[in-house]
Amino acid sequence: MYIKNKKQWLFKDKLEWIMALTITRWNKPVISSRMAFCCSCTSTQQLQLSSSPLNKTLQQINNSGVIACLRANSAELAIEAAVAAISGGISVLEIVMSTPGVFEVLQCLVQDHPTMTFGVGTVLNVENAKNATNVGAKFLMSPATVKDIMEDVRGGEVLYIPGVMTPTEILSAHDAGAKIVKVYPVSGLGGIRYISALKKPFPHIHMVASQGITIG
């Protein structure tokens, strides 16, 4: 689904209303950027969390309601797109590993926008997880549950958001220590209806609905 209006309601039903902001589309030769949105789907009860850095990140994601996911095929364009997203009201931004110079881009953004919540997506191994953490990532996302990463970040200050698809995977990730999971690819599973169905048996598990809301 493409976002066309400055304000477009994405989800309702028993989930909280979530609003996405328009991000500028960059029409440049050769290089391109792509912005997608992951929507935070929490329980109707307000989060009761300690003040640890990890829980603070979870609270910031919950407060935002939207994680903007940025892909670009140049570091320069990635920074340009990120700054535009921030100017448009985005407060939580994920930069995927396929972006050239992703760690340098992240380090630059963290230095220039210290109050923002930045993370890295499509993290598949511990080495990349450590590199992202070292330059200021507050959260890490994977398209699947990578047990080595989950073990490596356990007890640390970085929030790991593993990818899940089925109820069994959701519960397994939660039992292994995940504070929030990424339901992916949600558009191919029924979208809002699938998330609503999952929240009935798992109202206590925080979820991010990923894929299917795109700009670019």
From TrEMBL:
Gene3D superfamilies: Aldolase class I. Pathway: Carbohydrate acid metabolism. Keywords: Carbohydrate metabolism, Lyase. InterPro entries: Aldlse_KDPG_KHG, Aldolase_TIM. GO terms for molecular function: lyase activity. Coiled coil: none annotated. Belongs to the KHG/KDPG aldolase family. Homotrimer. This is Uncharacterized protein. It comes from Acer yangbiense. The lineage of its organism: Eukaryota, Viridiplantae, Streptophyta, Embryophyta, Tracheophyta.
